[in-house]
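Severity: low
Component: inverse-folding endpoint
Summary: output formatting inconsistent between runs
Steps to reproduce: submit the following structure tokens with default settings.
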């Protein structure tokens, strides 16, 4: 994923020019709503729409759908977003338009170059991106997004997004989440040593930076350990843990790597605690050989409440997805990430300007977003810039009972720790690691 691993780009990507516009090619083009439009909007109905009297707004999705380290989360994220926009259409659409989030769905294989290729293929045909999964992959297209006034809902939580007008992030970023995790540990079991074990780049580095800032502020010793993705590449991380014996490990990897690290460390006698950043977990880990170690040692931080939570948004999500799906908090993330783009579309429509520039302007003006209770009041303040960064997160024990989203224990509800509360976010945290 809200949170998906980061690797440095190997090449500089040039800003491409806009081509092959779908819909009007002029900012004076007006649909049935009377709002101006340019790219990604047609007067013709969406391909699968039942509403032949409505035009169509096309949104793109670029996700990790097959072989990347987060595909187990990304597939439900994407399915939830398709269901979210179908619900919007059933409720009347936006300004005389239905939303199509299915025609332009592409697999990035968690590869920045593949992500950019998919983006270049669809960018002249969509108004905005309903999903851009991964921080390093999104970084590959961000300069072009800025040049063409394209906004995106990310499936990632890097703190760098606090400084990007074109990204509509939701929930606490990795840095804030890790600060809060260390604060929680300080309140509950008083660790003296904190180790961050993480992937390189602005997923792992961002979380590690937050852990470092919190540990040093709270008088703890901090140790930084980077690792590579791959279950066969965790021996070094495991050795570092069992040799240095930290009281707390903030773990920021993919789920399979997390199981290899926790299981390997426990097998070698480690008895400290792990708190995983949210993309590190998938309930399928409890079917692996690492399950006993996870049950004994592992807690999970989270940017929002799990699948079975009692909010109007959670209820709407479960109803839209139906009883046939296996509960998975990838669905929860995909659903939550969709609200800000909906709010921006509604604001742009109200302003009479559904062009890309108009949508960007509307997004930048939002001071709050109605997440239907899935995030607390105060979330979605994009007009506030970095100062409006949402700072609350939660702690779960995802291994209680069956470990599924219908049976996990909430250890601490939405909270802002003492470090995160006072922290001045003046640049991306990973730049300070």
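Observed output (run 2 of 3):
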């Amino acid at each position: 994923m809200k949170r998906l691993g980061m690797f440095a780009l190997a090449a500089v990507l040039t800003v491409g020019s806009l081509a092959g516009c779908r819909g009007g090619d002029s900012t004076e083009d007006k649909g049935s709503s009377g709002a101006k439009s340019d790219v990604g909007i047609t007067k013709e109905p969406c391909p699968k729409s039942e509403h032949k009297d409505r035009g169509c707004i096309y949104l793109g999705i670029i996700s990790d759908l097959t072989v990347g380290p987060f595909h187990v989360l990304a597939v439900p994220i994407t399915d939830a977003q398709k269901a979210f926009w179908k619900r919007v259409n059933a409720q009347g659409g936006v300004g005389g338009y239905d939303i199509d989030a299915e025609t332009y769905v592409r697999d990035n294989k968690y590869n920045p170059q593949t992500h950019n290729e998919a983006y270049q293929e669809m960018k002249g045909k969509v108004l905005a991106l309903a999903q851009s999964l991964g921080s390093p992959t999104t970084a590959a297209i961000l300069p072009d997004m800025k040049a063409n006034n394209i906004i995106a809902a990310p499936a990632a939580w890097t703190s760098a997004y606090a400084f990007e007008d074109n990204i509509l992030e939701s929930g606490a970023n990795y840095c804030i989440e890790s600060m809060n995790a260390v604060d929680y540990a300080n309140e509950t079991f008083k660790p003296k040593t904190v180790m961050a074990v993480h992937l390189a780049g602005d997923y792992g580095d961002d979380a590690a930076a937050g852990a470092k800032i919190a540990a040093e502020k709270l008088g703890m010793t901090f140790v930084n350990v980077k690792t590579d993705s791959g279950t066969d590449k965790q021996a070094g991380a495991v050795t570092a843990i069992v040799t240095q014996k930290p009281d707390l490990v903030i773990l920021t990897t993919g789920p399979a790597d997390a199981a290899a690290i926790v299981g390997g460390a426990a097998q070698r006698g480690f008895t400290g605690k792990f708190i995983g950043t949210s993309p590190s977990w998938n309930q399928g880990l409890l079917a692996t050989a690492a399950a006993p170690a996870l049950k004994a040692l592992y807690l999970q931080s989270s940017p929002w409440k799990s699948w079975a939570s009692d909010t109007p948004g959670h209820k709407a999500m479960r109803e839209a997805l139906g009883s046939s799906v296996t509960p998975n908090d990838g669905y929860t993330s995909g659903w939550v990430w969709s609200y800000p783009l909906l709010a921006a579309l509604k604001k742009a429509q109200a302003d009479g300007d559904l062009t890309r520039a108009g949508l960007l302007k509307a997004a930048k003006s939002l001071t709050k977003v109605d997440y239907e209770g899935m995030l607390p009041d105060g979330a979605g303040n994009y007009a506030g810039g970095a100062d409006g960064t949402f700072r609350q997160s939660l702690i779960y024990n995802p291994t209680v009972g069956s470990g599924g989203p219908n049976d996990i224990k909430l250890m601490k509800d939405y909270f802002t720790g003492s470090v995160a509360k006072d922290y001045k976010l003046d640049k991306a945290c990973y730049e300070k690691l």
